[in-house]
Amino acid sequence: MGFFDGYNIAVSGMSAQRTRINVVSANIANAKTTHTENGGPYKKQNVVFEEILLQENQKEKNNGMEVNKNADISLKGVGVKSIVENDAKPVMRFEPSHPDANDDGYVAYPDINPVIEMVDLIEAMRSYEANVATFKTHKNIDAKTLDILKA
Predict the structure, then answer these.
(1) I need a surface site. Which of 1, 81, 86, 91 has the fewest CB within 10 A?
(2) Of 111, 82, 106, which Cα lies nearest the Cα of 94?
(3) Residue 122: CA atoms inside 13 Å, Cβ hemisphere, count?
(4) Is residue 57 part of a domain?
(5) What total number of domains does the chain contain?
(6) What residues make up the domain containing 77?
(7) Measured between alpha carbons, how far is 135 from 10 in angstroms, rounded to an integer?
(8) What is the pLDDT tens value at each position of the chain, 151 positions in all?
(9) Domain-embedded: residue 77
């Protein structure tokens, strides 16, 4: 493990959670959006995380079958694999005077529950704060180590 690995892991976690906070904020902001550029209501988005390794598994052929041979693998951090749209059906509400109402008077709203999104936002913020605390702790340990080495 290198000197800066702890910092890199904490920073990758902060970056991933910042992306999650932005996506959840967009979901909350568009909870009532009934018409987008693509037509139809806004679609909720979710962030998919992935682990980032310093060295990937090496695959070795053994009698025609692939076998994973673990090399020196260590965690580098977390990253955003993708941002996916939720395929939930829109919520239909009877509002015949709404400009986006269909012929039957129903308006398609995104299937977004603001309470669930707020809980997700709080969780992302807490995870971000935990990574900040980890970064600060690592920095304090390094500072104390340098103080000991000076003496």
Answers:
(1) 1
(2) 106
(3) 6
(4) yes
(5) 1
(6) 5-31+45-85+112-150
(7) 6
(8) 677 888 999 999 999 999 999 999 999 999 999 999 888 899 999 999 999 886 644 445 555 555 555 555 667 889 999 999 999 999 999 999 999 999 999 999 999 999 999 999 999 999 999 999 999 999 999 999 999 998 7
(9) yes
